[in-house]
């Protein structure tokens, strides 16, 4: 190995081994001592792969129309991995061309490729004290990945062990200066990052405003104008070479002269899209209406300072200042600017807010520069021109059979993952020299977790409660405390990061702030072993850091964990609560099975319910889609089962302020920030959005994004499992093989409709009880082919109704069919029709089915918002002798029509990979069908 190889293998050459006692590097550093790796999960001489049962399966993903999107036969997976995990991993992370010997066919190969590569890098870089330590590290890492206890971000799975110098980071921050060369260079850098599937963020405040002059006397364009160019590039350079949109963040400081234009730019464009939609243009996410407007390829955020927020509270003036001179440009009433931001958010979900003073108060490298920007999802916040590789821990895998949280195993997992991520830093490639230099000099990492919501429910704790927030705070505190402790141990063996010496004081100050924040956790609400482990980790992290420094400037973030959450079979992602108590499980041969979330029985057992009552409660959820009204369930326990969205048969959900409070509970123990969008109902007012922003600032979160349901006019989200096998009988449906004709005089209803300019009429004749018995359709002149086909079709449907075929079966069969003409309608309940048949049968649903069935086929109705009071906390089972056994998972038969609509997701986009409708995930979207994400992870 030559000197160049050693530099690459260790990250930043001799600077990596600098002794903190000699910050100027005046003495030649000692060679790395390496680390001893104790085994916790594995045994020497026994491969983790040999300890699990394996089976061969088919990986299959079908599109919305039933077409095969991906298929690979005879793939080898552990028996305990789900079919969803199988589909996602085989389609996303197996390397090599399909149908060739080079194609990976087993999880053994994939995990072995990654773990073996990282261990090899570590051994060559001197990270291990001996070869047995390197072997122990590889085995421990393999165990964590194999047992779904942790996962790296997607670029590691894509590239590690495939390329010599792989790009392993998902998150980037880029700088820009007030020169044309810099502005155009940013466009190039962003384009290359989008090409390889990563996301990027930039603060455009250094660009002079449109109210200032150029050196030659001309008028400057301003950052908002350049955003149009950046937006266009992001729109045509699809992320990762796929059809999904690029992940991009654009930030502007609140004192910038163009702040008002920035605040309103996206909302103004949204209104243009509405006008185009009203004129008949396709309003889907990638349709003609939205493709014709600007600023659709980025998340926009305002950087606000403590001074600005205080000016809002005190109703004071706020000055914008010229970029070039710093002189006052314009004066606003601070509350007017805040109202402008809230109004824009109310219209289109942008801009979000980033609280600059809070962010920089927790900055470990403040002596180098301030933090100006973030990645697209706002969880990675650090110096400009830097990158972060992410990994996440599956918290539910550390819940023991007796219901306690295994803090010791959790700590050991953190140790292995931080070391793995640290090794990755020095062996990755980076898109620019500046990013490579800063990555090597500061070595920021982004370890986080998933399944917090499931963990809290399994523990019998409401997500929106003091107990839930205390437990989340303790779990997060232990995550970051142990991560910094591990970083200090690596620094002892390998040297602190190159930028540590100049930043020793601010970094130790931040470590102390984290440690002091432990006092804010009510220790009476958390298990003693968990809170004591957190205290011990932070005490040791500070003590060891003061002596040896730290190997990494940052260690944790809370990312949205999109695709990798499917890989780990997580019920919940990142810091999120559960979405619903009913889930749909993919089957190996295709199709779905409805199941009650397996966390529910664990929670009921924790709360003290006997097995027979648990079975009846779970059966009730299976039949009704909600736990409200379940037998035996005490009302005080209802908050434990509250989810992000109201179930179709229930009224309860977590109030949006519950999400903000949970972010505030975790934020003091995260190096970076938290990717999470606070969803608000349609009825949310501008004043409520203002209040949410103010509360987020007061509670100390670093960034807050708000999305009001339905503010974008795209197609409604409907996650379906198929068509109903059995529907409720209606007159005369119980009479088999007997035609029940309508009376000569019968009531009828006629409806005129228009689909993308094509007009037609539906007439429905009804029985005396109001149920439909015949339909007539008119779409063209008499005698035309279309007219004849519509007459024949209407006759066949009428006969089916008169012979007792349930209307719901017909609606489930024919709704959502796709063919032309399709497009926007004049019916607010069905704004978009995928075809004439889709419109006809969804209109019939809107007139003749009940509310739950209407919701299943995507009829848009006003959702009333129930008042949310502070939840009553559950009485936990206190009998220490009562052990919590394995989950009692009650599953139903394959019910073809059992589906659910996620409220507050009506305008989610279609998945670019398979066409299924997506759901929100942090600041981005994820697909429940194929596991794809629209973000950078």
From TrEMBL:
**Sequence ranges assigned to domain Ribonucleotide reductase class II vitamin B12-dependent N-terminal in this UniProt record:** 57-148
Molecular function terms in GO for this entry? Answer: cobalamin binding; cobalt ion binding; nucleotide binding; ribonucleoside-diphosphate reductase activity, thioredoxin disulfide as acceptor
Q: Which residues cross the membrane?
A: none
Give the cofactors, semicolon-separated: adenosylcob(III)alamin
Task: Give residue ranges for domain Ribonucleotide reductase large subunit C-terminal.
Answer: 169-707
Enzyme class per UniProt: oxidoreductase
What SUPFAM superfamilies does the annotation carry? PFL-like glycyl radical enzymes (SSF51998)
A Gene Ontology biological process in which this protein takes part is: DNA biosynthetic process
In the record, the note on similarity to other proteins reads: Belongs to the ribonucleoside diphosphate reductase class-2 family.
Protein's job:
Catalyzes the reduction of ribonucleotides to deoxyribonucleotides. May function to provide a pool of deoxyribonucleotide precursors for DNA repair during oxygen limitation and/or for immediate growth after restoration of oxygen.
- Name used for this protein in its record: Vitamin B12-dependent ribonucleotide reductase
Q: Which organism is it from?
A: Entotheonella factor
């Amino acid at each position: 190995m030559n000197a160049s190889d050693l530099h690459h293998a260790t990250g930043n050459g001799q600077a990596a081994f600098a002794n903190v006692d000699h910050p100027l590097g005046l003495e030649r550093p000692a060679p790395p001592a390496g680390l001893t790796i104790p085994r916790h999960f594995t045994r020497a001489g026994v491969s983790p792969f040999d300890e699990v049962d394996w089976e061969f399966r088919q990986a299959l993903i079908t599109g919305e129309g039933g077409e095969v999107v991906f298929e690979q036969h005879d793939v080898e997976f552990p028996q305990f991995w789900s079919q969803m995990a199988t589909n996602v991993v085989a389609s996303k992370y197996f390397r090599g061309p399909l149908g060739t010997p080079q194609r990976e066919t087993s999880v053994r190969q994939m995990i072995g490729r990654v773990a073996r590569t990282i261990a090899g890098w570590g051994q060559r870089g001197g990270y291990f004290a001996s070869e047995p330590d390197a072997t122990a590290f590889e085995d421990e890492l393999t165990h964590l990945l194999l047992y779904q206890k942790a996962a790296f971000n997607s670029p590691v799975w894509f590239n590690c062990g495939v390329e010599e110098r792989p790009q392993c980071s998902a998150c980037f921050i880029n700088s820009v200066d007030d020169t044309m060369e810099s502005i155009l260079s940013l466009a190039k850098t962003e384009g290359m990052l989008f090409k390889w599937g990563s996301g990027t963020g930039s603060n455009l405040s250094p660009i002079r405003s449109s109210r200032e002059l150029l050196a030659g006397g001309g008028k400057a364009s301003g950052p908002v104008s350049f955003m149009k160019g950046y937006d266009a590039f992001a729109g045509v350079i699809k992320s990762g070479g796929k059809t999904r949109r690029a992940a991009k963040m654009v930030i502007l400081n609140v004192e910038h002269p163009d702040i008002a234009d920035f605040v309103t730019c996206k909302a103004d464009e949204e209104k243009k899209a509405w006008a185009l939609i009203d004129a008949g243009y396709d309003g889907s996410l990638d349709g003609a209406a939205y493709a014709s407007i600007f600023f659709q390829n980025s998340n926009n955020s305002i950087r606000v300072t403590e001074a600005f927020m205080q000016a809002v509270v005190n109703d004071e003036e706020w000055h914008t200042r010229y970029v070039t001179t710093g002189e006052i440009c314009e004066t606003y009433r601070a509350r007017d600017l805040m109202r402008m931001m809230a109004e824009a958010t109310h219209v289109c979900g942008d801009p979000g807010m980033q609280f600059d003073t809070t962010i920089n108060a927790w900055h470990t490298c403040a002596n180098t520069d301030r933090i100006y920007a973030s990645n697209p999802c706002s969880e990675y916040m650090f110096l400009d021109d830097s990158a972060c590789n992410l990994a996440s821990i599956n918290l539910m895998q550390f819940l023991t059979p007796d219901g306690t949280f295994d803090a010791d195993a959790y700590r050991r997992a953190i140790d292995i993952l931080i070391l793995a991520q640290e090794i990755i830093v020095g062996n990755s490639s980076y898109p620019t020299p500046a990013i490579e230099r800063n990555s090597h000099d500061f070595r920021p990492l982004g370890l986080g977790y998933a399944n917090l919501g499931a963990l809290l429910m399994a523990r019998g704790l409401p997500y929106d409660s003091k107990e839930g927030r205390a437990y989340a705070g303790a779990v997060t505190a232990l995550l970051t405390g142990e991560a910094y402790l591990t970083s200090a141990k690596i620094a002892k063996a390998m040297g602190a990061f190159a930028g540590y010496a100049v930043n020793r004081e601010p970094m130790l100050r931040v470590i102390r702030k984290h440690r002091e924040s432990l006092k804010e956790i009510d220790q009476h609400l958390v298990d003693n072993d968990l809170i004591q482990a957190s205290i011990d980790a932070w005490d040791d992290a500070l003590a060891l850091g003061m002596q040896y420094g730290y190997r990494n400037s940052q260690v944790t973030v809370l990312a949205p964990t999109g695709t990798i959450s499917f890989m780990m079979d997580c019920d919940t992602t990142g810091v999120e609560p559960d979405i619903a108590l009913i889930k749909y499980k993919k089957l190996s041969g295709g199709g779905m099975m409805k199941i009650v979330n397996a966390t529910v029985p664990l929670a009921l057992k924790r709360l003290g319910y006997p097995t027979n009552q648990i079975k009846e409660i779970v059966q009730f959820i299976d039949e009704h889609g909600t736990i409200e009204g379940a037998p035996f369930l005490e009302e005080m326990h209802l908050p434990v089962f509250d989810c992000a969205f109201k179930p179709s048969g229930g009224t309860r959900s977590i109030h949006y302020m519950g999400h903000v409070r949970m972010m505030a509970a975790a934020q003091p123990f995260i190096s970076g920030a938290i990717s999470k969008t606070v969803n608000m109902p349609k009825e949310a007012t501008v004043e409520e959005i203002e209040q949410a922003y103010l509360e987020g600032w007061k509670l100390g979160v670093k960034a807050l994004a708000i999305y009001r349901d339905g503010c974008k006019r795209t197609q409604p989200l409907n996650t379906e499992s198929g068509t109903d096998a059995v529907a409720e009988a209606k007159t005369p449906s119980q009479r088999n093989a007997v035609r029940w004709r309508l009376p000569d005089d019968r009531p009828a209803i006629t409806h005129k409709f228009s689909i993308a300019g094509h007009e037609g009429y539906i007439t429905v004749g009804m029985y005396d009880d109001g149920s439909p018995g015949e339909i007539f359709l008119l779409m063209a002149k008499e005698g035309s082919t279309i007219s004849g086909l519509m007459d024949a079709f209407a006759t066949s449907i009428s006969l089916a109704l008169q012979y007792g075929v349930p209307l719901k079966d017909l609606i489930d069969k024919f709704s959502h069919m796709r063919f032309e003409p399709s497009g926007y309608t004049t019916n607010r309940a069905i704004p978009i029709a995928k075809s004439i048949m889709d419109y006809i049968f969804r209109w019939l649903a809107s007139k003749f089915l009940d509310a739950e069935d209407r919701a299943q086929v995507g009829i848009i109705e006003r959702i009333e918002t129930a008042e949310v009071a502070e939840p009553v906390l559950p009485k936990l089972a206190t009998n220490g002798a009562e052990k919590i056994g394995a989950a009692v998972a009650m599953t139903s038969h394959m019910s073809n029509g059992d589906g659910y609509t996620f409220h507050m997701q009506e305008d989610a986009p279609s998945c670019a990979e398979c066409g299924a409708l997506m759901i929100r995930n942090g600041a981005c979207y994820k697909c429940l069908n194929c596991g794809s994400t629209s973000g950078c992870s």
